[in-house]
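sry for the spam today, last one i promise. struct tokens for design, 82 residues
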């Protein structure tokens, strides 16, 4: 299982990871910092890691052969074009 650590001091509270995660692994806490709520649902796509402007998260116990970054806005644009 993937182990996710959030650096609360580095987190800027933008909620990009919350919005971008396809499995809803994250929520914002009362201090408007990211918290992991469903770590077991993480599929290690690293979308959150790629989109985090502060690079405030670390994923452990994964072996990534290919980054599977998901940009929902780009996917929406592509689907309209095709």
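last one done:
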């Amino acid at each position: 299982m993937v182990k996710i650590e959030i650096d609360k001091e580095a987190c800027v509270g933008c909620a990009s990871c919350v919005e971008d995660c396809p499995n809803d692994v994250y929520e914002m806490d009362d201090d408007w910092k990211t918290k992991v709520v469903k770590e077991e649902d993480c599929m290690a796509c690293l979308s959150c890691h790629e989109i985090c402007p502060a690079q405030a998260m670390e994923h452990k116990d994964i072996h990534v052969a290919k980054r599977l970054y998901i940009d929902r806005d780009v996917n929406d644009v592509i689907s309209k074009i095709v």
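The helical segments are 16-20, 47-51, 72-81. ok im logging off now
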